[in-house]
Amino acid sequence: MEELEMQAVIEGLLYVCGDEGLKLEEAARTLGVSEQEAEKQLSVCKDRIQNNLLGLEVKINGNKYQLVTNEKTAPFIEALASVPERGKLSQASLETLAIIAYNQPITRTEIDDIRGVKSEKAIQTLINKVLITDSGRAQSIGRPKLYNTTDRFLEYFDLSSLDELPTLDDVEEHDVTEEADLFFDALK
Amino acid sequence: MEELEMQAVIEGLLYVCGDEGLKLEEAARTLGVSEQEAEKQLSVCKDRIQNNLLGLEVKINGNKYQLVTNEKTAPFIEALASVPERGKLSQASLETLAIIAYNQPITRTEIDDIRGVKSEKAIQTLINKVLITDSGRAQSIGRPKLYNTTDRFLEYFDLSSLDELPTLDDVEEHDVTEEADLFFDALK
Amino acid sequence: MKRYNVKIDSFEGPLDLLLHLIHQAEVDIYNIPVAVITEQYCEYVQTMQELELDVASEYLVMAATLLEIKSKMLLPQDSEYSEEDPVDIEEDPREELLSRLVKYKKYKEAAYHLKEKEKAASSYYAKAPTVHHQDNDDSSEKESSLPEGLTLFDMLEAYQNLQKRIRVSSSQVTTVKAEEISIEEKMEDIVHILEKKQGEIKFYDLFLTREKPHIVATFLAVLELMKHRKVTCIQAANFEDIKVEYIEEAAY
Hints:
The complex is a heterotrimer, with 2 copies of chain A and 1 copy of chain C.
Chain A: H1 3-17, E1 22-23, H2 24-31, H3 35-52, E2 56-61, E3 64-69, H4 74-81, H5 84-87, H6 91-103, E4 106-107, H7 108-115, H8 120-128, E5 132-137, E6 145-149, H9 151-156, H10 172-187
Antiparallel strand pairs in A: 1-3, 2-3, 4-6, 5-6
Helix pairs in contact in A: 1-3, 2-3, 6-8
Chain C: H1 14-24, H2 34-50, H3 57-74, H4 79-84, H5 86-90, H6 93-121, H7 131-139, H8 152-164, H9 183-196, E1 200-202, H10 212-227, E2 231-235, E3 242-246
């Protein structure tokens, strides 16, 4: 891989890793280079971002590289969160609500697993808004709380019952067509 | 606020919003400028990133701005992270979606007429995928639902606006008649 | 006669099938040999029925339309009639079919374009929104009033976004969580559950968290408890539920 291409990939990796950061060994493995080489490339990338961008920089914590916003922009990021648009119901809350609606009853850990991030706050928000409620405890170890949607949830989204939730048919439709294609191709 | 500072803030906001995207009005409100000014600044930022970075770019879908990795880096990101399999749309869904995109708002019967088959299932799939939505009811008999594409439609197909859809070579009514004449002449 | 590709199920409808036949016959859409195409079309529909595929009524309606057109083509041209009443020619059903075909073909092409766009668009990736951002967001949601104008589709959209989100955290290098679950803790948990459940529980009810580390730790904990003679497992018959019972006198 050429240096320019490697630099492009590093940028991309730093970005998608976001707040979790990119570990040196992950970078090396993905680029298919030694950790030493990866470290050099990451350092070049850090400098490039420093020199070319105004609001972002690369922070190093141990062997973790993280793309972060710099201090100047912090107050504005907080301001963004208070934009009324955003005050509605956050993406986090909506995601959590969808997961509960389609998988109830469900524990917090299971929700966290699906979302890949902690959902404690979102769950609290939804409880406060009486869109979900805890309906008891799972029989599993630690007896975690189980969450369900409420009648208010149905009312709010104008559903007569949970059965009215649109089905999440995803890949199947496509697969079936493809299988049919293969089948008929084989007949040729 | 000076231009350089504004640019720094926009970078930061784009980063923080991630795949949720930054709406034009949010940017304007956060920066405390008009939407016109915000649009100008976002455009400057888009160009700056385009010119100065190798692996990232700013994508515009409708009034939403999103910082994304570019195509070159995609295979490496797929290697590093687990990328959920994106169910591709079936032919029926794509046809239905194309008809809606070019004729919105449109009723189901009109779609059925163009396709020559029932499109109920495809419509439901598209609604579930939030690519279309019903936007009201036609004034005609039975008050049938009218369908429109959503913002997510733009995002899903990476269109900045509906204008970006290629024009169907507009064959006007009279053209069709002329062509029909040719067709039937040839049969004589 | 050429053998047709038996690919019936992949047609999107009678118009699609017609377009396919026209394309296969390598004739211009405006220059369709109606008699030949009609014959082929009917053969297709027949094959579909033979294969016991669910032939939608639309296919049969189209067959009827084609036959009607074909029969009209065979009639001698009544020149007097057409001169007197040219309006009738304009309302010819054949004309309507052509315009439908042309129109449908355009959307089929547009659908193809969308398919290409879909493919290209799926190679962009973005990070999840920064958590800090969500934190602040939630603080404005504290009040129990519900936001206005939120629809089911906002929720669905959020869910769709979630589904397409890449998960760096669950990358190929699996984080081993083993140290989080100690067998000692599991043993205590099981004893605790048994105390609450009057000293008896179904074996499978211990495994409600279906994560591998949990299952393994729980299983080992049960074995360990048996070894320490704190519990006993009873199975009345093959494939019956296994009961885990607490042995009172062995407690502590």
